[in-house]
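Students often ask why we bother encoding 3D structure as a string. The short answer is that it lets us treat folding as translation between two languages. Here is a chain of 358 residues written in the first language.
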Amino acid sequence: MKTEEQNLQKIIPYTELKNTGRKVLKEVIPLQKPFTVLIEPSSLCNFRCLQCFQRLKEVSYFTRTRMNMPLSRFEKILSQLKEWQGPKLKVLKLSLYGEPFMNPDFCEMVRMAKAADVAERIETTSNVSLLTREKAEKLVSSGLDYLRVSIYGAEKENHKKVTTSSFTPEMIRNNLLILLEERKKAHSSKPFIGAKMLDSFEEENRLFMEYFKDAADELYLDKPHGWIKVENSDFLGDYYGKDLEKAEMMMAEDSNNAAVCPMAFTTMAVRANGDVSPCCVDFIGGTNLGNMEEKTLQELWEGEEFFSFQKMQLMGRKKENPSCKNCSICGSAHYTRDNIDSFTVDMLAEKRKKYNWK
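And here it is in the second language, the structure alphabet:
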């Protein structure tokens, strides 16, 4: 039995994780296993936020594949991860392009993931609008390490405008307070709750910090960013309105001028339908490299699919990919910490030999 002192061990704040135990990526790639694997419990969402692709109505890969991941598929993914020899994943994140609590099996998925012991930590991201006391209790008992909460406004009318939902900041805050109550009852410090909101520059930022200060372990602001550009959409413009120029200026100031996306070398994302990608922002599916129902995650990671994608990045050919050519995430110093522009295809091919990969 764990003692109360062990249960209440100090957890590293969410925003400090990216600075903890960092390796120089170009010195350690190729990785035997990805640092991060994301599994998508659901690609459905109960919000239709102004700045999000969930509000798009045009028929696309994304709209055609909206679904909850079956528990049987989730079990198969965990089985593949357990059979994959090598170091633990740095993080297993149970969220991607939808709201995870849309899946009725989500809390069970967290429990199973923790029990599988394939990662150093288990995370998820949620708007917590669907969090109930029963789910909060299950989430605490499951052993979830980090809950990243997306807040979309601290003022009622602004929250309604952004999310186009009937949920209010008060409802979100109350749900978080319930989770804190259940955590306290369990004498636990997990999950660590990090709540964030897109930087709104003005009074909304202050209201957010004031209103949610007692409902989370950490509050922080995300810098403006753009999703992959698609026709008939202006995610940033619709969210920022008159402040768009200010948001674009902040993005420009944050640029690191990186040409190669490091996600191709560190990340694996598994969609609810089983499609596998090296990217956590590609909602249109342009970087899909296979499906875990046809090849195991290990086979995909070690195979020609990922190797070809990585070579494309290193050779400066990412404009050939329909998603990469319209993505700016890799150029953001806020969201992308590693620069591997000096790494070459020959270096990658040579270093792959140590694993006896083709």
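Translate back mentally: The beta strands are 36-39, 89-93, 119-126, 146-150, 192-198, 218-222, 267-270, 275-277, 290-291. Keep this in mind for the problem set.
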